[in-house]
Amino acid sequence: MSSKEEIIQSFNPDGVGQNNGNLFGLPFNYEHSRLTILPVPWDVTVSYSDGTADGPSAILDASPQLDFFDSDLQDAWKIGFHLTPISTEIRDLSDQLRLKSTSYIDFLENGGKVETNDEFSTVLEEINASCEMLKNRVKEKCLSMMKDGKMVALLGGDHSTPLGLIEALTEKHEHFGILQIDAHMDLRDAYEGFSYSHASVMFNALKYPQVQRLVQVGIRDFCKQEADLAAASNGRVKVFYDSDMKTAQYEGKSWRAVVDDIVSTLPEKVYISFDIDGLDPKLCPGTGTPVPGGLEFEQAVYLFRSLVREGKTIIGFDLNEVAPGDTEWNANVGARMLWKLCVFMAKSNHLKP
Hints:
Layout: H1 4-10, E1 35-40, H2 55-62, E2 81-83, H3 88-109, H4 118-147, E3 151-156, H5 163-170, E4 176-181, H6 201-205, E5 211-219, H7 224-231, E6 237-241, H8 242-250, H9 255-264, E7 269-275, H10 297-309, E8 313-320, H11 329-348
Parallel strand pairs: 1-2, 1-3, 3-8, 4-5, 4-7, 5-6, 7-8
């Protein structure tokens, strides 16, 4: 087997994108990677449009079209970014349960009461048990990769998928903050009865005492219960609502000043949870629950660049809610955001190409 140095020497980063089955068309396998990404093709509890289970494969297919020169970290590709195989077992289970959850959600939306319906009570129990199984499986896989010395990230799937990675990180770090880019707060308690709903991921993450602070950016679609929870958190949840940020900018505040406010609220160790619907939906219109407003691509990149510039360490990240839709544009944007997240995680951990 060739050494990593031999592989690097034989690879032309300026050449034609390689459809070699690897993320970004890079030449690295698991052994030669330093940042390993776990794909989770799962969208069982999505409450509007499904399709995010196709996100990992669509992003993988689109990723070789990227060019590798990056002014934030030149020769970053040499570090080794690798996507582990996409589980057909998980994907098949997601498809099976999605059929049941769709019927269940339709039942609720038409005024049904699950507590008086044996069939849908059984469906709910099955889905909750399977979602817990997935969370535990993700946690075990992430801990195994960390044991192998890898930095670990996750590619969803819907926004419920990274909870297992977050739980794994609580066993490695005494405390850290979560920077969430999202249109939604995801602070609902078991939304629609799903204990591990995509709309409940941050409610669940706050159950871990190691999560010192949750900083939410781009929020513009939420319920009163969620806003009240954040307001009553004694500063543990800090929300940068999209309308407030836009108003500040309309009245003369620079994006740099807004970003400085965001970064100053975060502790030294940061986990990034990136729901693609945090961006303006023109950039990724196929996402499950698009909402007008949101960040531009370069605004998000500037935020991450500032995070690293201020000495914060990115201990992990997820990218989720990318659905291919009927255009390759969604996966194209998703792949490019994934690349930037990889670059900034590597740079924040002082990895040298």
